[in-house]
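Amino Acid Chain and Its Fold in Token Form
===========================================
Scope: a single protein chain, as residues and as a discrete description of its fold.
Amino acid sequence: labelled as such and written in the usual single-letter residue code.
Position: the record begins directly beneath this header, with no further notes in between.
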Amino acid sequence: MRVPISWLREYVDVAADATPEDVLASFVSVGFEEEDIHRFEISGPVVVGRVLSAEPEPQSNGKTINWCQVDVGEANGGVRGIVCGAHNFVAGDKVVVTLPGAVLPGPFPIAARKTYGHVSDGMIASARELGLGDEHDGIIVLSTLGLDPEVGADAIELLHLNDFAVDINVTPDRGYAFSLRGVAREYSHATGAAFRDPAERDFAELQPGSGFSISVDDQSPIRGNVGAREFVARVVRNVDPSRPTPPWMIARLVLAGMRSLGVLIDITNYVMLELGNPVHGYDLDKLQGGIVVRRAEQGERMTTLDGQDRALHTEDLLITDGSGPIGLAGVMGGGTTEMSATTRNVLIEAATFDPVTIARSARRHKLPSEASKRFERGVDPLIPFVAARRVADLMVELAGGELTDEGGALFADVDIAGIDLPRGFAQGVIGVDYTDDEVTGALEMIGGEVTATDGGWFVIPPSWRPDLTDKWTLVEEVARIHGLDRIPSVLPTPPSGRGYTPLQQGRKRVADAVAAAGFVETPAFPFTTEEQNDLHGSASGEHLPSIRLANALDGQAAYLRRSLLPGLLQTAHRNISRGLVDLAIFETGLVFTPEAGVTYGTDFVPPLAQRPSDETLAQLNAAIPPQPRNIAVLLTGNVTPRQPGRAAEHASLGDALHAVQVIGVAAGVDIDVVQTQRAALHPGRAGALSVRGEEIGYVGELHPQVAADADLPGRAVVLELDLDRLLTLAGERVVVESLSTFPAATQDVSLVVDAAVPASEVRAALVEGAGELLESATLVDDYRGEGVDAGRKSLTFALRFRASDRTLTAAEATEAKLAGVAVATERFGAAIRD
């Protein structure tokens, strides 16, 4: 919220010598965050001048300039010759002249310079050059602003360009601070300065009159609330939209971040910023009949003020007349009834709308506006009558209108629920020994009605604070008003039994282990193409269902990933293009695996402000696809660089298998590898990863064509597995038994089996048969050649045996080994190689 200081001073006493930093510090003390300071950034001599003559001079480039003689006053050098390209003025007009030495926004320093055959001794300024608007085709003629100042007068002061605004960040729960009324009250809280409420008016003068039909027909309320509970309409006739907006109003609107759009629209914007209640003006002569506030009908459309034709949703709240929709309530008005240069009679609308309805409509149509920003946070229900009358008064004063007795209104009882605040509760929550007077004083200062009870106080929050709903929010106000610096800096003691879940611990343990093994984590965007999903998301490369984004950041990558590899390939390509060719990278992240034939998504929106039931959660979960968390690794280039006495070692399948081992150890489970085929991997250099017989991923060397398509030079090896499933299969980690102090007995065994038998299954048979004495079994050789029959292979395993209570004899180790061989023989026909 940008707060012009001259405007703030109208409602609260701000010290004359207060700097922008002082004002911001005051706002920070009551819980706002400072953002910026805004000025017109104009300095130097900027004065009022009278055009004595303006001689048009056509130029060779087809442009005609005016060679002007301008009187800027004796104190400023008298008559000066100035070149001007605008043509919207004549001799005798008073204009704004920036003299040499002035600096305009940009910065744009002014100096006497030769141009078009003359020395231009200054510049006649336009609104855009002064930072007052976008108009640049013509200069400012002061008479069009209703001004007739003396020649030579200070134009900076005349046009209120010496004002400044402070910018504060307003959190979503403090919507009342999106108004000068709200921030002035907060400044009063911070400094103790007297506050003058601009909404304090005699209610009798706020009556809107009668004769204009207004009704609400809301058959689909949100959260049990109808869309509009108050709606005030007033009529001002015979306005003159050609009248100029006063300079003081233009300056304040610009500092507040809004453009001047003509006196009628400027007035509605001004009152919105002043009181926090968005106000809309309709061209009364374009209305057909009365106003009906209702929900949109199926298939209904309307054109909003921005010229866009919009398809409406049945939940949208509309302002309608006999012709149909004339406004998207609380968001933006319609184009058919907007105020324009031909408007003579105005219907003023000030209302309160259901915040949830407005928020959903603004997001549904991607149409955030200053109005919706306020309505969705909650508008003071007591302010619409004041806002409507304030707009009417300004239209009478500034646009020459006549306030009539015509109008209409919907009234609603404002019922604000009281809150019981126990005595001592604030002290217990905040940790500060507030006195009772401090507690009640803070709540009364923010506008609450405080009544003492036996156990504490009964507090009715002010109408402009819908965020105060319980005793905790009241306590927050007490802490804020009396200074957050009083809260002691004491770290709380966390309760036992909290922290990471076992699954979260497992994810972190695996990621830390892979990083410790020399891999670099490189998170990527979860967006890819449908082709990449098909290639890396399945073994055979067949087409798989993918989730397409409704509003993709990149139209060429409009799908959610089924695999992490596309992101790793992009990361590798980006690094290689920058000269980093030796890569060992990994990522953990969600993948999205929709099932064929299942439609995801839902229009169902659960009620707000209440805990959803198990059935509601199940319905919402069914609307999203499965999203397992995977881990993927990619290696390319060298794993060991070239160095004296040692050649470089290229990344190989063995390095990827080592990464599999690291992941398995960190998860606390053995991962088996069996040869397989995948469309994205090199034939014969791909393995399926499984745990306890369930496949969870794959490892292998990228197919050369896939690597080439990704612009990867040479070989690249990858692995990807379902990390969540891996950790689930691993189960809870158990405490490791104490290490035995007795020596190990080692033996090797070579088994001949069919070449198609996976080595991992032979190893599993050995482990099962050898029993508890076997400490480890490692495959050390896979031989196929002379001495081994065709179609067979010899697998050599290094076995280590150990007992926890004695030194094993060679006979005991041999007996355990042969027991393992017996199981392998029974299952696979294994024979000990001679």
Notes: The chain has six domains: 2-40+163-191, 46-158, 203-410, 419-486, 502-604+612-730, 745-832. The first strand starts at residue 2 and ends at 4. The domain at 203-410 is CATH 3.50.40.10 (Phenylalanyl-tRNA Synthetase; Chain B, domain 3).
